[in-house]
Specification:
The structure is a homohexamer of 243-residue chains.
Chain A: E1 2-6, H1 12-25, E2 31-35, E3 40-41, H2 47-66, E4 71-74, H3 82-88, E5 93-95, H4 96-107, E6 111-115, H5 121-131, E7 137-142, H6 155-170, E8 176-180, H7 188-195, E9 199-201, H8 202-215, E10 234-235
Parallel strand pairs in A: 1-2, 1-4, 4-5, 6-7, 6-8, 8-9
Helix pairs in contact in A: 1-8, 4-8
């Protein structure tokens, strides 16, 4: 199968990093196609960044559909433009936050989320509510590590992240940790070893869910909310969407 | 004061229509500046339409700020990009759905919403939840009138809308009606006369709230969730946001 | 327009204070008629005080209706007897807590409430739930300043109030402050200057909402929950309500 | 023990009726003292009626305390002034709606409520929410029988009530019926025989709960929310509350 | 009346202890029959213990029905197998957690729960949600006292329990205390004296509710959720349930 | 990997059926070991059946752990004893209802559940709430097909099931269908073809999730809620659990 793995920001180093993570857990016949949009912010750390990133992200979804991919993954913890992407895709579209919550809830009663900037906490809360996992989350903690600082992680950054995970466990009662940024994808294994609880990275979780849906022949329902958008005119930079 | 009244779709007729509605209730010293984005869909009827419209809508917010407006109104019932707009604006940003829910809750115990397409019902439900008005809403009803059909409303369209309002009252127990599309703005008065309950249009509601905030010197808090986004690089069509 | 501004307690100093606040933001053609009931407690700090105050408060609503006012404001943060008042009034009835929550949610993502006595905290929580703003409130904090101590505020009282506002911001993540007592009405401006976040006083918020509804010709729905009460006999001190 | 059984409306026939119901289930050493306030409406069918009735109801609570009763019952399905009464009482105060919900939840998974006027439905919903029984209620149904029509029930009224109970069972899935008015107290037995499900009357439920609390020496907590109100001045008709 | 008082664990000392508590508050004509299952764990401190205990507990329910008891009490704070028991019983089945929550809510606005092991906290939270008392609970606190340590309580154990109750009051705002284990049944009186708030033991609460239901002729509804299970074959150790 | 696929009822035909379903989607190196408990009911259609089935089901979990399986699946739509099983297992334990909800939410906005007996509806509602999917479910519909009737499905049974799925889509707005019984496992493909929406069977969903967790090295957290139960004595038929 072919998976359209989308890094919604324009940081190429991040795209490569998550491609490596995804490939490391993919089945032999799973082909990971990693890319990022041509237009948009170099990192996503606010509702504004997310809104801007969403427009070009949808181009990458559309390209994937045209190239015949079997599933799409939106590899940013805010799961930006997920509903919009599902409308234009016939294949499944998976957000890494939702994917991580699902697997975390299978191996723990309550999981903690450890994420980047303090100001993204309400966004994480909203995702937990959107997906229905609020009562299964022991708390969301910010590290105030900038997304791009995760491109190449130094010792201090790792320690800061690990310390916040430990507080999630000891203070909040987290029984597993969900990593709240695609850029933390390569740290899950080491953290898990040191913390003695399951540590879930959404990127690899999404890959396994994409494979699962593909093997079960499950595609996005085109009845109701995720039906194709009505054909209409688009102007300016978005004329290519006109039908 | 100056109000930046934004029609987030690119239909010029709709922009003119809501400008007239807004002007009709504005105080003498309120100057309505109505506009729509250069880029995007001609109407907003799906999550996809909304995601595409959001990017260029934020340009119009930014322009308003630069022109020294005192408030912004996003005149589409989905309140698209509201949080993103509040991040980049120092002046208040008001969505017409939120504005309508607020005034409706002051004159009724439970209000009904009558909107356009069936597939937008989940979006309305999400807005009610976002703002906290779910328990005060007797139900959301779709008319399956396309947004652009509202540009110039014929007799049949009006009757279909009125009939759904009547069902909201008699079947759902609605005590007031919120009109679920900016394009219905000019029908509030006539419907109210015929239905004998308050009928609330979000466009005029938002104008009065914008004036209220201005007169009380209340601006968007720049602490926390609506703080200015971090400066960073943007690529391609969004390079103008780079700092 | 004429606004029936009701201080539900019998403290005349408080009535004068809120009249000044209301007048300071009213439009030139808005006439504020401030009064308080003849019967009841000198301050409202418990469910008991509120229950007793409610009976005579309704007389003042009725008098306002007979005098042809265009809106009523119940200027006590518990919004006492709001539903009952809306039943007997044809004009809008606005509570200051609900009004403050509405405007606070337009300029912040999450607001904090700073109020008087610890024992009124559950009442504030109930109001947040009644109106649907619980998820938008970062917390309610008590100062244990008695309501009557607010009649003339000394330096220590002001500092205690300000300190609690600061804790709401730094500890709870409040992005705006709602003042939880009509008696704090004259402090909003100074606090806002010093705290660098929006500070919302419900009295002035309610005045602007009353003007807004009036300008939009919106009155209390007489269908459903707020229909006129059935005519019936009343005994004793309430015989004047018999019909 | 002595129970202060309060009919909050001024209809003497209703007081006598509920006294008979209460006495019929009381233990031999339970003394029922039934009374109604001197001031207020002859029946309670709106928020307005309830607000007016509350003031004088609190006098009856106070009198009961002074007479050394062991518990108070507020015998109106809206449980008016319950929190206020608990503040001024040291002995337990029980509302008949809350009492009925409790016992109904012990003998069924989901119970239905059948009440009087359509316009009281939101009040019932609010009570279910206040007490936490919303998810255990299959629905609230109105009969539009006026409260005073229950003083002496004719065949048609009984049939209308029974029919609505049957619909609650067959259409809503009610497994037990809660009677939504103290005036229906004498019908529980006959309805239960005919409906083949438990039928719960709040008046008798409250009597048993009052006896239960008394036998366990449980009184209203005077810590926190139900602490004695602060002493203060009251004016006019309520001067007797001044301290 | 006869009450089938079931200690779901196999610790005989615990059975005797709760029998004494139950008898101490029972009416003269209430006959308490205390017993415990033949099969199962000596204490219940996990979901696993509860699942194992449930099977044999249902035998004791069945025996009680055959012996003609008038009510059943499941005297373990997890209320294990309550729904299953109600299905096979025609008489009321009462869990001690649910019973304690009910009475606590009659004498306080918010109660705290003080229980045994930390790992049972989610189970208590689930019960609060199942019954609808989550918003009326100020918090659940664990003492990490093992259930069997409660069989004969020493000074240190009592002090640890009392200290946690005090913290529930001073830190969480508990206005009453619910004891979270049947084994604490004999401590309610002494704790109540020392804490100056109501202390509710579920065992005695359940006895009074059982008597209340009996005196009102209320039995488990056999319509809907608690209808008799369908007759079917059972194998192995459960063949006696085959019909 | 080895999966311990448990049919919690004692119907051997059902065990064989779900084994075939599971095997049909398993990866080449996944070994399905299907079994059912020695003790318990031949089908699970009530809380009573579920409570009885749970005890012996835990033996099968324990045996699987001892045989070195890599994951356990509880193949009954009530997900019986899930928390208890997770406590005693170190490998992941997956319930088929939870698994189906997860995959359904990835390919639809709102899914419908079509299940067996009407009396199991509250159990399904409880599962939706337990897992947090209530707001994503358009409704649960019963077919009143007995579980054992699904062992070999005739034309009429299939048509009844299909008809209820169609009503879920057209009346409730279901965009995907979750099959509410392991015994329907072999019908998912045919129904999906005919209904034109995704149809999700929990058995195959659970197999893919078990494989996913295994490939990611994720096991049940042994911190907190799912820690090993405390060692203790068990009596009678459960003595083998004593430690």
């Amino acid at each position: 199968m072919k998976i359209n793995l989308i890094n919604p920001n324009t940081c190429q180093g991040m795209t490569e990093k998550i491609a490596i993570s995804a490939q490391s857990v993919a089945l032999p016949d799973t082909h990971i196609i990693a890319s990022s949009p041509l237009h948009g912010p170099v990192s996503i750390e606010s509702a504004f960044d997310e809104a801007i990133a969403s427009a070009a992200l949808l181009d990458v979804i559309q390209q994937g559909e045209q190239q015949g991919v079997d599933a799409h993954i939106i590899a940013c913890f805010g799961d930006p433009a997920l509903d919009a992407a599902r409308e234009i895709a016939t294949k499944p579209v998976i957000g890494i936050a939702g994917a991580a919550f699902q697997l975390a809830s299978l191996v723990s009663y309550r999981f903690g989320v450890v994420t980047t900037m303090t100001r993204t906490l309400p966004a994480s809360q909203h995702l937990l509510q959107r997906y229905g996992y609020q009562h299964l989350c022991s708390g969301v903690r910010a590290t105030d590590i900038a997304v791009l600082a995760l491109e190449s992680i130094d010792h201090n950054t790792y320690q800061a992240l690990k310390k916040e995970c430990q507080r999630a466990i000891s203070e909040d009662g987290a029984e597993a940790i969900v990593l709240g940024c695609a850029g933390m994808s390569d740290l899950a294994h080491e953290l898990s070893q040191q913390l003695a609880v399951p540590v879930i990275d959404g990127v690899v979780a999404a890959v396994k869910l994409a494979e699962s849906l593909h093997q079960l022949n499950l595609c996005t329902s085109k009845q109701g909310q995720y039906a194709k958008p009505l054909a209409k005119a688009f102007q300016g930079n978005f004329q290519h969407w006109s039908q």
